[in-house]
Amino acid sequence: MARRFLWASLALAPVTIALHYLADLGDTVEFVLAAAALIPLAWLIGEATEHAAHHTGPGIGGFLNATFGNAPELIIALLAVHEGLTEVVRGSLSGSVVGNLLLVLGFSLLFGPRGQLDRESSLVSIGLVAFAVLLFLIPAIPGWSGNPERDSLVNLSIPVAAALLVAYVGATWLTLRRHRRLHVSDAADEMRGWSFGLAIVVLALATVVTALIAEIVVGTIEVFADRASLSQFFVAAVIVAIVGNAAEHGGAVVVAARGQIKLATEIALASAAQVAVFLIPAVTLLALLIDPLALSFRLVEIGALAFGVVLTFALLFQGRSSKARGVALIAAYVGVAIAFGVAGDR
User: Fold this and answer.
1) Theoretical Cys-Cys bridge with 264: which of 46, 108, 198, 290, CB 3.0 to 4.6 Å?
2) CA angle at residue 80 from 77 to 86, to 5 degrees?
3) What is the DSSP letter of 99?
4) Are 271 and 291 in contact (CB under 8 A)?
């Protein structure tokens, strides 16, 4: 019954897009419709990822989900850069990393079964995020005083972005080679699932539609924020980050609830690492063609990122999943969200 409802509710996405361009519903109604439309899209991306993982194994499956799931965030970030909303861009990107480390991973562990995780892969992803946080300090610390958008900080951000991209390419190549060696094909399992090509096509189409819906949410979220008396930073770091990560949120929880805790963990951690060492530097370098962006993250953002890395490392060091660990991560995210709310705008 639930699957039938989710399949049927996918129609909400094209309806929302059509109403956005053909009708004048008002920002609040559009926000509610678009947010609701993201739920079945996230489920569909999770479904396609699970079928792709039948052919590739959980490691590569998590990488595919992170890649397709982070595409909307890249689009949202570049649109915000074009609008000159640099604080929103930084907040949404840092909030995305924290959200994946704490919220997505937390719900995955909470709804998934107890079991053994891929410890080596998990620690590599956490290590990449830690490496990114250390490099972010180079432009961030000078940005804690004076104009955070000044040219000198942009100049500091460029080599940081380049170094992160090099680290991402190297780590991804080694990790995917390892997962390919570890994966043992199960022909019977693959026969029951979608073909690999179909799974990739569905992932691509769902990602495109998710990007369109996410753009509507971002375009209407300021009205919602004003009515809720929330700061733009909180909206970016929490609400926009959650919306932009809808694919990973839904996808990880769906596959975790089906017992595939390794794949769910890979989705959450691979997405956090990909945002930190690929998406953030990619946005920084692409922004040079639009409006230069400095990686001058606020102290509260750096603190939240560092806290997320340390806590995730401590809980996953043994390579075991449990509901208690999930609850701890979710509680930590609630604390971070409260800190973002208290921090207000810069």
Assistant:
1) 108
2) 90
3) I
4) no
Residue 319 has pLDDT above 50, yes or no: yes
Spatial separation of the C-alpha atoms in residues 335 and 65, rounded to whole Å: 27
Phi, psi of 319 (to 5 degrees): 75, 30
Q: What is the pLDDT of residues 94-110, one digit of tens each?
A: 999 999 999 999 998 99
CA 73 distance to own-chain centroid = 7
Phi, psi of 133 (to 5 degrees): -60, -40
Residues 6+ apart with CB under 8 A from 27: 219, 220, 222, 223, 224
Half-sphere exposure of 203 (CA within 13 A, CB side): 28
pLDDT single digits (tens) 321-343 = 899 999 999 999 999 999 999 99
The pTM (predicted TM-score) of the whole model is 0.81
- Cα–Cα dist 57/188, whole Å: 14
Q: Tell me which fold the domain 24-182+189-343 belongs to.
A: A middle domain of Talin 1 (1.20.1420)
